[in-house]
Structures are given as structure tokens and as C-alpha cells.
Amino acid sequence: MADTLFNKIWNAHTVKEIEGGITVLYIDKHLIHEVTSPQAFKGIENRGVPVFRPTQIIATADHNVPTVNQHLPIQDELGRLQVEKLIENCKNHNIELYGLGHPYQGIVHVIGPELGITQPGMTIVCGDSHTSTHGAFGCIAFGIGTSEVEMVFATQCVMQSKPKTMRINVDGFLGEAVVSKDIVLYILAQITASGATGYAIEFAGSTIQNLSMEARMTICNMSIEMGGRCGLIAPDETTFDYIKGRQFAPINEGWDAALEKWKTLYSDDDAVFDKEIFIDAKDISPMITYGTNPGMGISINAVIPEINAITESDKAGFTKSLSYMGLQAGQKMAGQKIDYVFIGSCTNSRIEDLRLVANFVKGKTKSADVEVWIVPGSKQVEQQAIEEGIDKVFIDAGFQLRQPGCSACLGMNEDKIPAGKYCISTSNRNFEGRQGAGARTLLASPLSAAAAAIAGYIVSPNSFKGEA
User: Fold this and answer.
1) Are 198 and 166 in contact (CB under 8 A)?
2) Would the pLDDT of 74 be above 50?
3) Fewer beta carbons within 10 angstroms: which end of the chain, N or C?
């Protein structure tokens, strides 16, 4: 019987179906970090329950770590306590930890793929909403709450309601300076930040198939921003080539067996989805957000919608959002001055992102009015950037290359944007206060962020006469 990729993986991991539509789902890999794990560890310890399968858990420190002077004691008291507790808990429960100073340390959704831990057909969970990133490999990957983290510690299973299925098809060739971040911001602008609520999203079509794995990860990363439970892309030769030879990838006969299985992971031609959306790639241009949710986005050269273009039910939120952002309906975004540029986060901090930025800014210098933070997603990305001389390009351009961590994505650590300041960010969320109390976040691609860093204001990368 024809079926979707999502259903194939879900059914293969179903342990039991409970009356009321709840499924007990087996979890292949559990990723943890310092922020959402302490309470879950305390929970199983209070009940006298051991971690059921510690070898299927990988830990790292990422959310609340400094991105400068990581060799020194952490100055922020909360961050220090969280990292110390993670070290203690992992030691007590025999869990592999890639902490500060470890060559594999980094953002949890960057290190999983780059180490070959993330593999097609898996179920992957983490106490972080952007676990959907791993779906780029043909996985069911989603964020869970602290009580569910405790559940997985104890049983290696989690109870979930099965979502509906949606396929978003993107076909055709992308225009100049349009990258994967623009694709996902365009989709969000079309369907809104709640348009996929209750769905597992499969991204498909020729445009998606022609993307690199790093670009696919960016798209799946932001599927949660549409309200989706998870996002995934069918694995193919691009996927297999990316995984082969990585630290924890199968080898020899194990590789051959895994590959044979992975090649069965796709939605059948006559599979039926609960909803389908079709997008023409030629309609996508470099994007920028103007509001306080990721669905409030437009082409960089467009204007913010007028109030009469907004549905009655959304007008109050629209007005409140513009007030917070200090922007006006009908205003052109191009030319808006900015204060900070943040290139990083689990959305856009991989080596491909850093190369894209370096190629654009080489020989250029940032605007004197803009502070630029480049935060690699992992120690491996940082090391590769140094080996390729990307660090020198950034230094020459006046950019700061920091050390790995979530950094200014979420305003939890020391990397905060001051109140009232505008930051073009390659992260995934632009909520009020997301990057610091009163901070004004404008989401964009690494290429568009680099262009703004040089100009000092929002500008399409195409304005640089093809220099990108």
C-alpha cells in the first residue's frame, strides 16, 4: 500500500497505540544540552529510575555558554551552574558529553549531522524545538518538553499524538542571491507562522532536491516556525554522500546494509497527503522579516503591508508588532539602518554559511556603525574556518569570529542585543525580546546579513552588482 515517508518511519517506531489517539514511539537518538536536562535528571533520580539506554544519548553544552574565552571559568552564574550540572549528570549516568573544550562541542543540531550521528529513518528528540533540523536526513525529529525528556531517559520512548501530513513542493530554479533561508522565509510569508499547525511537513520538488544538505537543514530547522510538528526531506545521493565517512557513520558491511535500507525511505508516487502546497522558485527573492513572528516577511525590496491589507483578526497584532519594531505600514525595508549583524544559530552556522559570507565580504569592510558577530555552530566548523583562512577574511572585514554556541539567537547567554537596536539575524525567531529585552530582530539569510553588514542598512545582495 502506498504511503508517505513520515508514515513509514512512524509506523516502524510504533511500540503501542493507546486509546485516544496516542502512540508510544521508540526513540533512536536522544540529544540533550545544559538547559532542559537538569530537571529531567532530577526527576528520574527522585523516582530511583536509571537511564534506560545511555548509549543512545548524546550531550553537549550550547545554549547558555559564552562565545568568547571559553577556556576561562564561565562568568554568568546560571550558565556556569547549568554546565557544571550537565557534566555531573552525564558522569553519573554514563552519557557521552561533548562539553566546552571538547573537539566535538557545538550546537546540538549542528554536531549531530556533522558527526554522522543523524542518519536516515531515525526518530530523534531533544529538549529544543529546532530538533526538526535533523529531518533534512529523512528522520522524524522533534522537540520535547522536560517531562518528556524524563520519559525518554526512563524508557527510550515518548508518547505522542500522530500529526497529519503536509507536502510543500518547491520547483524550478532559484534567482541570483536567493538561498535556502529565503526559501523558508518565503514559505512562512505565504502560509503564516501557524499555517502548518498539526502537520508533519515533507519538503519536496526539484528545488529542494538540488540543495546541499546544509541548505536542507536550514529549511527543516524552520518547519517548527510554521507550526509544524516536524519537517523532513527524503534522503538521496546528496544525503548519502554527506554522511559517508563521518565519525559515527556506518562502515564496511554496515554501510552497505544501512544504504540499502535508506534507499527505501521516500514517499511513494501515489502516497496521499492531508494537504499539499506548490511553490514556484522563481517567485522567491532575498527575504527580510519586519515583525515579531517569522511569518511576517517580505522581499527586501518590497514594502511593509498597509493596514487595510491585513485581516481584521490580525490587525491588532500587526499594529503591536510594528510599534515594537519601530516601523510603519507601507515603509520600504531597504535602506533601514541596522546596528548589529548576527550570523550563527542552529539555522545558519555551518561551514557552508561561513563560506558564503566570506566569499561575499572578501575585500570589503563593514560599516563603522554596525557590530558583526559570526558564531560558528561547532568546534569543527570553527577549526575548518581557520584552516580555510575564513577567519582572516572576517578579521579584515571588521567582523568578530567568536567561539561555538547558540549565542545571540535566544538572549539566554551573554550575547544580547541592546534594547531598541536593530539586528539582522540568521537565526530562526524574531519574537519580542528574543535576542534581549527590547531588541529588534530582522531575520534574513547569511548573504543578506553580510550585505547589510557592509552597507550599514538593509540591502539586497543583488545591489552589489553581482559581487556575491
Assistant:
1) no
2) yes
3) N
**Which CATH number belongs to the domain containing residue 169 in this structure?**
3.40.1060.10
Domain check: are 303 and 451 in the same one? Answer: yes
pLDDT at 468 over 70: no
Cβ atoms of 172 and 281 within 8 Å: the answer is yes
**CA geometry: angle at 348 spanning 302 and 354, to 5°?**
105
Q: pLDDT tens-digit profile of 407-433?
A: 999 988 999 999 999 999 999 999 999
Distance from C-alpha of 362 to C-alpha of 341, rounded to nearest angstrom? 17
CATH code for position 51 = 3.30.499.10
Residue 219 to residue 132: CA distance in whole angstroms: 9
Q: Around Cβ 447, how many Cβ atoms within 10 Å?
A: 27
Domain boundary among the residues 126, 161, 196 is at 161
CA distances in angstroms from 364 to 178, 358, 382, 398, listed in the order given: 21, 10, 21, 9
Q: Is the pLDDT of residue 467 over 90?
A: no
Task: Look at the chain and report how many structural domains it folds into.
Answer: 3
- Report if residue 271 sits inside a domain: yes
